[in-house]
Amino acid sequence: MSKCKIGLLFITLLMLFTMLSGCLGSTDFDRQVGEITRPYRFQLAKWEFQTLTGEIGEFFTGGDKTDNATKEIITYFNNAAKIGALEYTVNAMSTGNYSAGDINYVQNEIDELRSQNAARRAATEKALEEQVREALSQQGIYSPLDKYVKIKVGFPPVKIHLGDPPNLLIISPRDKIENIKEVELVPEMSLEDMEKIESDVDKLGVSSIVEGLGGLSTYPSYVLSDSSLQFTLETAVHEWIHQYLAFTPLGFRYVLDEAGLRPDNNIATINETVADMIGKEIGDIIYQKYAPPETEQSPSPPTSQPTFDFNKEMREIRIAVDNYLAQGEIDQAEAFMEQKQQYLAENGYYIRKLNQAYFAFHGTYADSPTSSSPIGKEISQLREQSASLKDFLDSAAGITSQDELIKKLG
């Protein structure tokens, strides 16, 4: 009991330390960004306190189990899929010759499904937590403190909160792709709000973008509520790995980087890539075991048209932008990205804003097509030479620099 209490407190203190340390050494730029974003700032510390208090109370009352786990998950994610399809219908109807009554009818269906899911959200969260913990245990992954505590107890306890995660403002310089600042913003933002913030921040001579998050490594893990079952599982595991790594050399260096006390973009990339790879691997294991036929995606109909390779296009765009910026051709790089944004939209891939900040954020995941970092291949090689997923995690957890990663590869 006491170890769990201490662990939860330590996680909270780490998060508060990260947030508060961002105030140290504040510059004029930081203060200007603060003024622009103040009306929209997400109060993370307040959310943590309220949510964590409820989770601790539930833990001591034994309210962390649920019956009919598979049934809850089937119903919840079937509803989530229907919500997504109906929202697409509403968007399509709003651009056509449909009456307000028709659109309201569909919107009422969406509201009813959301109401149903809200009622079963808590049970679904518990069911997902049980499945994630079971899958981790089967891989021999229990606690970052295993070498000190021989009892096989899952730590940190797997806790998931399904909801609307905050939006995130990402800021990069214009002359290179680098994530120099992030600000959590409230989930409830209009497109006009986002564009106003971006416009005001860009006037400071930087590149910025506001992006929605699929998850956040708070405690409990904050996971988007209306996504697919597979995405939810992958994200839940991904965020838990961040919590696990916070008690290891790699995770602690990441905390220092996030706090601005010891900046190292490579450490952030290693951490995110490790979490992403393990999240996908374990998420897929759970999905294949538990996913009912109702949640399976229908196969796409065959087509004679050549397939548009989005990943290939994004990687080529990233390489071209890096080359432009390396030659100091900032305006050309930005004109190129605007042109490619339109090209992607013409091929069915709508990206609201394609700029340096977009790549700075999405490129943190070195196994994604938006990254030009060699770290993705290096982490993949480390996974291939590891005897198990647990060995891979243990090996990655001790890394404190890219040089150490390369040494591990022999």
Give your account of this protein's structure.
α1 packs parallel to α8, α4 packs antiparallel against α5 and α7 packs across α9. With 410 residues, the protein is mainly alpha-helical. The N terminus is likely disordered. The chain is 60% helix and 7% strand. The chain has a domain of 214 residues. The longest helix is centred in the first third of the chain and has 39 residues.
Nutshell version of this structure?
The chain has 410 residues and is mainly α. Helices cover 60% and strands 7% of the residues.
Instruction: Enumerate how many helices there are, as a single number.
Output: 15
Distance between the first and last residues' Cα: 42 Å
Helix content: 55-70%
How many runs of DSSP E, i.e. beta strands? 6
Cross-sheet strand order for the largest sheet: 1-6-5
For the sheet with most strands, the description reads: 3 strands, mixed
Which parts are unreliable, with pLDDT below 50 for 5 consecutive residues or more? 1-13, 18-25, 295-301
* H/E element order: HHHHHEEEHEEEHHHHHHHHH
Proportion of strand residues: 5-15%
Would you tell me the structural class of the helices and strands? mainly alpha
Give the averaged pLDDT, no decimals: 84
Globally, the shape reads globular
Gyration radius, rounded: 22 Å
